[in-house]
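Shipment paperwork, digital attachment
Item: protein structure file
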Amino acid sequence: MKKETAKKKPVFAVLGAGHGGLAMAGYLGLSGFEVRLFNRTPARLEPIRRRGAIEVIAHDGEELPRGTGPLKLATSDMKEAISGADIILLVVPATGHAPLAEAMAPHLADGQIVVLNPGRTGGAIEVHHILREKGVEADVIIAEAQTFLYASRAVNPAQVQIFRVKNSVPVAAIPAYRTPEVIKALSPAFTQFIPGDNVIKTGMDNIGAVFHPAVTVLNAGRIESTRGDFEYYVDGITPSVAKLLEEIDGERVAVGAAMGFNCMTAREWLYIAYDAAGQTLHDAIHANRGYYGIKAPPHIHHRYITEDVPMSLVAIASIGEMLGSPCPAICSIIHMANIMHECDYWETGRTAEKLGLSGLGLQEIRRLVLEGKV
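Attachment content:
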């Protein structure tokens, strides 16, 4: 009888050395996986390169991974980072998805899996479209997580704190029928990833679109006067703020329904992700212990606006307009963000046209999502 060969552990490339990238790379190294960490700026990697590892610390009282996670390498060379990697994890703001897709394109190989953590709204569709435009012929699966797995913050250049790990996070591939392959490949490292229906569903179930931009805009005065010295979710989401979040959430769910998908509400998501329940959205948010201790951004020029408005709210409102499902509350937040930042997020954001969805009927969109073909 032949001896059963031990399964080889997947090799991971983590692209991005911010809060999330450090958490994911540190956790993987701590769990015994080979990890390559990529960041566009070499200076950001220097402390990590010198140490050869990332220290992971956990929130007090939580039973979470902690210790020193070694890295195979930390590099600003994309080819060096992803060559030989089985799974490529993009852990950057959604505004970085397109540049990273263009940088990866010449170096991708058959069998690799690219996972956006998270995709925000339309991320996997955007990357899939760019790779097609770049003429990539390798058999590569593009997938996205519905939200980021960790609540985490980098506390030093080579040290990250994980506040909470979500119970489950849906992941979907484009084309959708390859989602089981992605989940199977990720499962040795991430048991929390579960199959999502498709990338439209994971994109429309992007709860960051509900929580981040509106809370930041409505707390702009407090952020600027205190430099973010208050608890973002606990202090920043009062009953009145939560009422607006519920209105935004309702518009998001309605756009999903217009596309033929049942999106979960923010309250349902809090219960599934964190076991946090409440009679209202305000109550459910305040029942989530994972949000306690997370400070507000130190300024309003933060990814909660610069990323989540163009990469999430614009996409939802644009698709809603195309399908006859108006989003006045969402549009009001986009308008205020434009004024505050003196820019036009409608111009720079993921519109239906930029995602390649403009002019497509529901059956054509379904074919793109399920089969990966336009």
